[in-house]
Write a structure and sequence with these properties.
Elements: H1 21-29, E1 36-39, H2 41-44, E2 61-64, H3 75-89, H4 99-110
Antiparallel strand pairs: 1-2
Length: 111
């Protein structure tokens, strides 16, 4: 089973907050999570696009991380571990903004 923890595509290309469903499912079934980081997907297939807008050759990067055992862990622990794995290979330009920076961007968009 493959699931995207954000539940939607990012409008900015930055990593979004994770939703809990997939972590709860993994914990309840006791299966490991194998994080896959897909870098630069926004440039190939933006959130507003029904289909990819350009070829992904030499743009997209897929990183397969080590499995994370779910047994004996809470959903919050799994979220943290998967996010940490993503951050090791995700370009800085795709890291989430701080809360303050998010508010500033939202404020600018509303003007």
């Amino acid at each position: 089973l493959m699931a995207f923890p954000e539940g939607t595509r990012s409008k900015t290309g930055r990593l979004l907050k994770f939703k809990g469903g997939m972590f709860s499912m993994a914990r309840k079934t006791g299966v490991p999570i194998v994080p896959l980081t897909i870098s630069h997907s926004y440039s190939v297939w933006p959130a507003y696009g029904l289909l990819p807008t350009q070829r992904g050759a030499k743009k997209l990067h897929v990183h397969v991380h080590d499995p994370i055992e779910s047994e004996g862990r809470t959903d919050d622990e799994l979220v943290t571990l998967v996010r940490e794995a993503f951050m090791t290979t995700l370009p800085t330009s795709q890291h989430p903004l701080s809360k303050k920076a998010e508010r500033e961007v939202e404020s600018e968009e509303q003007q």
